[in-house]
Design brief:
Chain lengths: ~110, ~120
């Protein structure tokens, strides 16, 4: 199985901050790395697919980058609605695996 | 606009079989380049992929659950289903059905349904 490790596990930040979350994979993913946002009691929402493609309707303050085994999600200027848990997901090889999540909290 | 709706029991006894159905509306389930996924999330924990049905008819399962899982599709009803046998308390979770396009992410999700395994 491909292991996907997110960091940090949790993060405190303020509105307007720039935030970066990292995802490291145990194998090369050929860019098949996606990012999701999840709020309590809701299904995850796709933000970024295949490393850097912004899903339709997602604000442009979200961006993704990376290659090989290391990937990042960046939020350029945090908004109040961005405080949530973020997950990365690899869909390069079965079994599909998720990172353990990064909880983004208000400072 | 595609919509997915899970239906299934809220409570299952240990050793029994958990059965879920996901009804897809707003588009055909036999759409090309599409996977239909089941994903679960124990309370307060992360996401676990259970398995997928590919539009070609292939199925893919998480090895950790493979011996207990079956995913099937009923194109006449535009539904896909999950069966998980011999459940234990460890199977207590919110279960999501979802759609994933090839070379893209999981873009449509059901609202999620909590299943509790308890005697």
């Amino acid at each position: 199985d491909i292991q996907v490790t997110q960091s940090p596990y949790s993060l405190s930040a303020s509105v307007g901050d720039r935030v970066t979350i990292t995802c490291r994979a145990s194998q090369i993913l050929n860019n098949y790395l996606n990012w999701y946002q999840q709020k309590p009691g809701k299904a995850p929402k796709l933000l970024i697919y295949t490393t850097s493609n912004l899903q339709s309707g997602v604000p442009s303050r979200f961006s993704g980058s990376g290659s090989g085994t290391e990937f990042t999600l960046t939020i350029s200027s945090l908004q109040p609605e961005d405080f949530a848990t973020y997950y990365c997901q690899q869909n390069y090889r079965v079994p599909i695996t998720f990172g353990q999540g990064t909880r983004l909290e208000i400072k | 606009q595609l919509q997915l709706q899970e239906s299934g029991p809220g409570l299952v006894k240990p050793s029994e079989t958990l059965s879920f159905t996901c009804t897809v509306s707003g588009g055909p389930i036999n759409s090309g380049s599409t996977y239909w996924d089941w994903i679960r999330q124990p309370s307060g924990k992360g996401l676990e992929w259970i398995g997928s049905f590919h539009y070609t008819g292939s199925t893919y399962y998480n090895p950790s659950l493979k011996s207990r899982v079956t995913i099937s599709v009923d194109t006449s009803k535009n539904q896909f289903s999950l069966k998980l046998t011999s459940v234990t308390v460890e199977d207590t979770a919110v279960y999501f059905c979802a759609r994933r396009k090839e070379a893209a992410g999981t873009d449509y999700w059901g609202q999620g349904t909590l299943v509790t395994v308890s005697s």
